[in-house]
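> tool_call: predict_assembly(chains=two)
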Amino acid sequence: AQTVTQSQPEMSVQEAETVTLSCTYDTSESNYYLFWYKQPPSRQMILVIRQEAYKQQNATENRFSVNFQKAAKSFSLKISDSQLGDTAMYFCAFMRDFGNEKLTFGTGTRLTIIP
Amino acid sequence: ETGVTQTPRHLVMGMTNKKSLKCEQHLGHNAMYWYKQSAKKPLELMFVYNFKEQTENNSVPSRFSPECPNSSHLFLHLHTLQPEDSALYLCASSQVIGGGLNEQYFGPGTRLTVT
């Protein structure tokens, strides 16, 4: 069974600063997918960024980027130039492979951006 | 309506009541999911439906009964719940295709309180 661990229950950072959220996972699979989801207060969960394990290049989406270390089973999220709208719960998630639709989530990190 | 909608948004019910949660997706997807989100716990996958057929029941107690009449609608029928069933229930949908990654789109959730 796969497990996802987010060791930072809460974080806060000043607006415009850079913050990194950590995520580690455990799996015996060689091919899989990793995701970061964002859940703003009282709003819907949305996908922030995703990474295919077979790709060595780290995924980036505008201000969001990941540091994917496959050997270490680490998948951190970096948010650059943080904005007030980035305040949310962030969940790291694992999917074994395509065709297997089960997402395994971590417990989340509550990120607060301070004005 | 766009995306994934859920009704009601909030529900308070007694342990002897029977109620239903409704989810509707407007994205043309063919897979739908129920998740349970409890405080300080990872999101738990409850049920998966692919093409209206249940493909996953993650050891969910029988007091939760899902129904998927078509690929756009998903229900969760509730009866004789326990206080520990109080949680945010999230619905999601995705397009399951052969090959490729299928992002799950989430609804806003139903906040359920069992008294």
